[in-house]
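Protocol step 4 of 5: obtain the predicted structure for the target chain.
Materials: sequence only (see below). No template structures provided, no constraints applied. The aim of this step is simply to have a reference model before the mutagenesis design in step 5. Sequence pasted as it appears in the construct record:
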Amino acid sequence: MAKDPRGRREVTAEERSEIIRLAVDEGLAPPRIHEKVPRDTRTIKSVLDRHRKEQATREGMAELVRQAMRAHHDDLLDMARDIKEALVLPSGLLEQPRDPVAGLSDGPLYAGFTEHLHRSSLWQDLASWNNASARWQRLGVTLWERFCFGLVTESGMPFSATEERDEAASEERSPCWLWGLQPFIADAAMRLVRGEPIPWPPETPYCRVVSRTGQFRISIGLLDIAQIPRQEPAGPLASLARAWEQLTGSEEVRELSGDTFPGLDSSRARATGALDTLILKRVFGGRCRYCPV
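Step 4 output (structure tokens):
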């Protein structure tokens, strides 16, 4: 029979289990336990003290693991929120939609995020978003360049998107009211793509060209309406009208409004729906390399 260094018989596993059971389940004190287990009360107290320390250690470790797991999931939730916030539809024709994981994919946590969600439809939705975003950028730039080229071709004057004055080249510059037209034209084109009405009457700070009884009617900012006979277009205003008419009927506008913008919108809705589910559940399924257990 095993003995401790002092020559006393060691407490067996069966005795230890019985002492703990009597103390925990039946609430007996060491003197009462001594009546059922023939051990000295000091030995019984020693067994119970060791049990309490081991239990406290286990509970402490369990709490540490719970806190670590909670913090890990909070980090994953923050990443889900960051991705969702990056899914913003373009507000302007020349605005490039962001890749929602740009700046996140290089960090170590992103690998864990993907491991937790390796079966999620989120990745397909984000890929659809990025594909539509690339088409948007290509078509938007092409559309704007087409308009600028059309204006230069129609008017025979260089088109300026700034308000800077160059006295030396003033004779070659387009009229002052053409300076700084980029935000007006780009905004009006964006409204065409979204199928929104372009503000009218002319005091609204937008550009609109409408065909009425053989005339173009133009309003840019606070400028007065200009009426130009369609049959006899002349001067920069007519050039602007014809360039705008070419833009509104272009294949790029039809593709942006009929396919690309709806594609961005639908992929965003699907991706944000999947992310909202993760955020509201607050728990990520599966495991990753950074899970505490």
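Step 4 remarks: The first strand starts at residue 208 and ends at 212. The helical segments are 13-24, 30-36, 41-86, 108-116, 122-155, 182-194, 235-248, 251-281.
Proceed to step 5.
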